[in-house]
Amino acid sequence: MQVKISVIVPVYNVEQYLEKCIESILAQTIKDLEVILVDDGSRDRSGMICDTYQALDERIIVIHQNNQGLSCARNRGLEIAKGEFVGFVDSDDWVDEDMYQTLLVEFEQAGIDIVQCGIKSIYHDRIEKVRNESSRVLSNEEALYMHMQNKQYSPSVWNKLFRHEVITDIRFQAGKIHEDYYFQYRALLKTDQVVLLETCKYNHIHTNENSITSGAFSPKDFHKLEAFEERMRFLNHHQNPRLAEEAEKAYYKLAMDFYYRCVKVGMVDEAQTLKRIIFSKRKSVVGLQETALEKLRVQLFLLHPQLHNYMLKAYHHAKGIS
Questions:
Q1: Exposure pattern of 11-31 as b/e (b: 16+ CB <10 Å)?
Q2: Residues 165-199 pLDDT 10s
């Protein structure tokens, strides 16, 4: 039977959050959906909780597998998803009851392949709404450009609804964190148009210490830089100079940021490798910058990385940026 929406939920050791997550999906105002719970080798009660809900609601499908990581769990869900549209929810988050109905309405416009809503970031002591500046329709090129600038179109897949046929042959990179970066640019290149909604419907928790995103900087964070490099190389062959230049700029900007992070945590060899990569392309890196201030910032890094870092910290302090 064809269902309207497949919601894929990777599950791993989240027994204290999981019931709220599942309940929020089952309570959706649109009932024509399937919920695919992929238990990725949980060692707590998460797998049992999944089985209990499967017995209570026929819309739930449960898969148990040995621990393979978030990407493989999502990919397993994609393999069996039957919905015309596909959404993802992290198992320690939850969604407002009308989230998928709100996103689905936007697909009534011709040529829409992805719809994104704003999020509510949940902390111990506060809730911060991260809104899109306004509700609007973007071409895939505009969305990808904003994505690479880290503006508006977010890298995360969980505050979006995808037309299934667009992502049929796209998968998450196994064994990687920051896996959404590998997925998003390929999805955007296959889309026609994207809708950004101002309204915040996804609740993303920041209090789970077991979350991948809550840890300190480590060698695994280089998966993000690898994703940026892959995207840069891919777009260099895509015959769109504007996108290729933006991808290259984003890569070297992140490489400079990672250089400082490596120095801070004592990853000396990695820092030196990054420095060599940036210095080997110094003319290109400077030339990619659009404004005189950006060019000056990069030239200062190339001249004296430590002085650049000191001035950057002073600027952030003056602006109240942590």
A1: bbbbbebbeebbebbbebebe
A2: 999 999 999 998 899 999 999 999 999 999 999 99
